[in-house]
Design brief:
Layout (H helix, E strand, L loop, with lengths): L10 E6 L3 H12 L1 H8 L3 E7 L15 E2 L2 H6 L3 E6 L7 H10 L3 E4 L2 H17 L4 E2 L11 H7 L5 E7 L2 H12 L4 H10 L8 H4 L2 H15 L1 E2 L6 E2 L7 H9 L2 E12 L2 E12 L11 E8 L3 E8 L3 H21 L10 E2 L9 E11 L4 H11 L4 E10 L4 E8 L2 E2 H13 L3 E10 L2
Helix pairs in contact: 1-12, 4-5, 5-10, 7-8, 13-14
The structure holds L-homoserine.
Length: about 425
């Protein structure tokens, strides 16, 4: 018989924020208590939950744990892990920094904070001998932060291409398969709770840019400011673009892309035509996916639910269990990998294929003039199709696709095309993958 073991000292966990994701984490912590204790080797104990309204009861949190003072979390000596689920930059950023500086490990789902000052906070964690984990900040329940930081570390990653905003993917999927127009698809997304009443961050690609900045850090070991990411939202897309793209064999996705080109980084979040048969062309509805290309592994695709209380709780609690196991084993954190500042190429130098939809007067010679403007800027046309002709207005819609061209060349050609007498409107200009 072994000697009687010491009573198992629980590991104290406190939460900042008890909104949707917080509720998911509280429920999972309660339901999984025994399982987690077995996996960690010691039970987890919920210590404090920082909320705005302390009087409102929360499932999974005893009333005594609720507080509206952040200091109560810091002053609780038995809290070893702080889980930040408040969202937004302030005061979350300050709270994370103070928790780290007080010697607490921190787990966060906060994409905005990690995109804007992740490297700085990781360094702060390192200085204080604690860990800062952020699996839930990108792709909700999809494991991607840890795979990039650990399982793919032997690779030189050359490209990360991702669908990392479920709201826009839902809207674009409805526009692709139901022929909905943008306003209709967005209203439905709002009705179902996928889109916020103010959808700006999602539809203008801001949310995706935060997540892409985090992915680029992990993949390329560089700091990229979300402001350096070229961005185009989806609000200007029309149902016609989806019809024409479909006829050409493409769907349209909001792709977040980071690619190393001669040591510099091309980064963008843009609606992009992508062939239906491409793996990312098949990621529909609110799903997210991240495709990674590495020199050793080749191409790998991570796909799954990118938001929602349960999938996000899965990622948050994986981090909590990971760090709790370190606490039990008495393991200190590893030295953080140092990031260098990325050299980001301006959009004018980045290359892509393009799709453009141009409404023109249906007269002889128009096409030659447009082709001339493209040719003068070294842009090679891949295909031209004349779609709807309006007999009364005597206009036609031209859809032109190009081979790869620099953004700056394209802008110059478009400036010339816009000035042509025969051109009524440049309806849309979109990137094409490939
Ligand atoms: N608003 C995000 C999305 C979820 O639509 O994917 C949270 O990151």
């Amino acid at each position: 018989m072994s000697e009687a073991s010491e009573p198992m000292e629980p590991i104290g966990v406190s939460l900042l924020g008890a909104g949707n994701v917080g509720a998911g984490v509280l429920a999972a912590l309660q339901r999984g208590a025994e399982r987690y204790a077995a996996r960690v080797g010691r039970p987890l104990e919920l210590r404090r939950v920082l909320v705005r309204a302390r009087a409102r009861p929360r499932a999974g949190a005893p009333a005594g744990a609720l507080t509206d003072r952040f200091e109560d979390v810091l002053e609780d000596e038995r809290t070893q892990i702080v889980v930040e689920l408040m969202g937004g930059e302030h005061p979350a950023r300050e709270y994370i920094a103070r928790a780290l500086a007080s010697g607490r490990h921190v787990v966060t789902a906060n994409k905005e904070v990690m995109a804007k000052c992740g490297p700085e906070l990781l360094e702060l964690a390192s200085e204080h001998g604690v860990r800062l984990l952020y699996e839930a900040s990108v792709g909700g329940g999809i494991p991607i932060v840890r795979p990039l930081g650990r399982d793919l570390l032997a690779n030189e990653i050359t490209a990360v291409t991702a669908i990392i905003n479920g709201t826009t993917n839902y809207v674009l999927t409805a526009m692709t398969y139901e022929g909905s127009d943008y306003a209709e698809a967005l209203a439905e997304a709002q009705r179902l709770g996928y889109a916020e009443p103010d959808p700006t961050d999602d539809v203008e690609g801001i949310d995706a840019a935060y997540k892409l900045a985090i992915l680029c850090g992990l993949a390329f070991h560089v700091t990229v400011s979300p402001d350096d990411i070229a961005r185009q939202g989806i609000s200007g897309l029309s149902a016609r673009d989806f019809r024409y793209a479909d006829e050409l064999g493409y769907t349209i996705k909001l792709l977040a892309s980071g690619r190393l080109v001669d040591g510099a980084l091309d980064v963008s979040v843009r609606p992009t035509l992508i062939a239906y048969e491409e793996p990312l062309g098949k990621v529909d509805g609110v799903l997210n996916a991240v495709q990674v290309e590495g020199d050793l592994v080749g191409r790998v695709l991570f796909e799954g639910p990118g938001a929602g209380p349960k999938p996000t709780a899965s990622a948050v609690l994986a981090d909590v269990l990971d760090v709790a196991r370190d606490v039990v084993a008495g393991r200190g954190p590893l030295e953080a990998i140092r990031y260098r500042k990325a050299v980001v190429r301006p959009p004018s130098e980045q290359e892509s294929r393009y799709y453009m939809r141009v409404t023109v007067a249906d007269r002889a010679g128009v096409l030659a003039k447009i082709a001339g403007a493209l040719g003068d800027n070294d842009i090679s046309i891949a295909s031209v199709v004349q779609f709807e002709v309006d007999e009364d207005a005597r206009t036609a819609e031209l859809v032109i696709t190009t081979h790869k061209a620099r953004g700056g060349r394209l802008d110059a050609a478009l400036a010339t095309i816009r000035e042509l007498d025969e051109v009524v409107e440049i309806g849309s200009v979109l990137q094409m993958a490939g």
